[in-house]
Amino acid sequence: MKNIMEREIIEQAKLDAAWDLVETFSGMPRWKPDDVNVAGNLITERLGAHGVPVTVHRPHIYLSIPHDASVSAGGETFRAKPPSSSLHCPDGATGKLVYVPSQKASLRSYTKNAENFFGAAGKTMGDSLKGKILVTDGFGNPALTALAEEWGAIGLIAINPGVDIHWGTCTTIWGTPDLEDIGRKPKIPVVAVNKETGTALIKQAEAGVEGTIRTVMEEGWFEQAVPVAEIPGTDDSDDFVLLHGHYDSWDVGVGDNATGDATMLEIARVLWANKDKLKRNVRIAWWPGHSTGRYAGSTWFADFFAQELDQHCVAQVNCDSPGCRWATSYHQTTCMAEMKPLVKSVIEEIAGQTPIFKRPNQAGDYSFNNIGLSSFYMLSSTMPDDIRAEKGYYAVSGCGGNIAWHTENDTLEIADKEVLLRDIRIYLLSILRLAQSEVLPVDWRMLTAEFAETLEEYQAACGDAFDLTPASAGVGALDAALERLDVGIAGGSVSAEAANAARRDLARILVPLNYTRVPRFRHDPAITCPPLPMLDVALDLKDHDDATKGFALTQALRSRNRVEAALRAATQRVVSAL
């Protein structure tokens, strides 16, 4: 690390306060609303003990708290867990069990595509499931639940791949629903069972047996604490970096996400002690409602502070599941394209590894895509693939790859002190470089390169059926303007102030273009979309017959118009800074 000031600040990061919070949270279940508020108050007290000023917001957010579930079939009753937002069905829903095997690659799928779950069989499943209970492999996730509903199933049983049953959520609604979202609330009971129970239920399904799903849920509006620490920078700008993560968890949730809460606490402590060295403000927020509200806490913040975020937030950094045992690799590092050079430099310097990046899923607390915030991390460190294979672990979405994720087994042994300290320093250095840099370390030419690759892929998929050349030309024009901007910044003809404003404003245009379908300040469904999602109609354009081809081409034209207009607006914004 060449920067002496950075090195001095990074070396101040210690484990004392962080590990104490991990140990405390390891004895505190944090999924029922009252328990969550107790934990929020504890975070507030710990911040105060370090002299860090904190504001505690107390919004009312809509939550779905799972209490109990079971599956009965063939005279036996089996243990189950309902995901949050499952239909409350204490008297049970009864129907014939129908087992449909899913593809192994689909176990964690966030994409609402029947073929992703079931292969070619997914195209023809609809009528065969009406009035029946779908039994399949994987997790009871939103995309699978939405498909089961569309097919007329009266219930869904997800067979988890191991001995444990994982909690989760099954709604596509992002955060607290509004009048337009509420219709997507799941209307069927959903449960998860372990592999042993699943094997028994598959046999019952093959024998044509009926089954009954029972779920006990609690839904409603709950006041929840949202602690937010503010570390002021030294310039006169209101611009800030947002670091955030959830503090509610399933059961005691050590790896998901007590370690993240501890990471943010330690960063708040260190930054407060060095606030005179920061150029920009840093805001650190702890969210409730992640597990039982489908990111309701971060969504409330995005809604309530939308204008401030729009005008002044330079980037958001999500802190989820750092510091877990065996998580020594960075080959699944979540990052938007424009932030890759920054993240790469940090991980190489702190961990001595070159990260392998993954595109952010529509998951975690990425509640800011529709505002247009450049983003990185959600999951950072994870266990190497060979270690995971050696242990016989299946893929999960947190806890550094430990299959204790979203179970009662996510306890203190899931955390690792050495890994936690390294991850704290990775997060800290990332935030420092965003907060200290004279010119924001955002490389939009990384995104134009991604756009060019995406359009090439989409054009190859649709062939002569539709022309994406105008969109590709728009990408080329934007890239050329960005090159001139970079030259101007390096040569001093473009001021830091003008460069920063342009780079921030580009996020408001390009992030929604690459990650959303709905208008700004609304929230997309919790279903992961491909790059340039408005244009993904090109991927299956050739599959349309005469009955639907004209409609698909109309959609493609409208979508291309939106992409072209956004690229033109982005180019004009860059040119205005030159």
In a few lines, what is going on in this structure?
With 578 residues, the chain is α/β, with parallel strands linked by helices. Helices cover 39% and strands 16% of the residues. The chain is globular, with a radius of gyration of 24 Å.
Shape: globular
Mean pLDDT: 95
Helix content: 25-40%
> Distance between termini?
32 Å
Number of structural domains: 3
- Major β-sheet strand ordering: 3-2-8-4-5-6-7
Count of separate DSSP helical elements = 16
CATH H-level name of the largest domain... which superfamily?
Answer: Zn peptidases
Domain Peptidase M28: 228-420
Main location: endoplasmic reticulum
Protein name: Carboxypeptidase Q
GO molecular function: carboxypeptidase activity; metal ion binding; metallodipeptidase activity
Describe the structure.
- This protein is of the alpha/beta class.
- The chain folds into 3 domains: 4-59 and 224-436, Aminopeptidase (3-Layer(aba) Sandwich); 65-220, Glucose Oxidase, domain 1 (3-Layer(bba) Sandwich), CATH 3.50.30.30; 444-577.
- Helix content is 39%, strand content 16%.
- The protein has 16 helices and 15 strands.
- The chain has helices at 4-10, 16-25, 33-49, 114-118, 142-150, 195-206, 254-273, 296-304, 306-312, 340-351, 385-391, 417-436, 444-462, 469-491, 496-515, 549-577, and strands spanning 54-57, 60-73, 76-79, 89-99, 133-137, 155-159, 190-193, 210-223, 226-231, 240-246, 281-287, 313-318, 333-334, 357-358, 375-376.
- Strands 3-2-8-4-5-6-7 form a 7-stranded mixed sheet, with helices on both faces. Strands 1-9-11-10-12-15 form a 6-stranded mixed sheet, with helices on both faces. It has a two-stranded parallel sheet with strand order 13-14.
- Helix 10 (340-351) crosses helix 12 (417-436), helix 14 runs parallel beside helix 16 (549-577) and helix 15 (496-515) packs antiparallel against helix 16.
- The radius of gyration is 24 Å and the shape is globular.
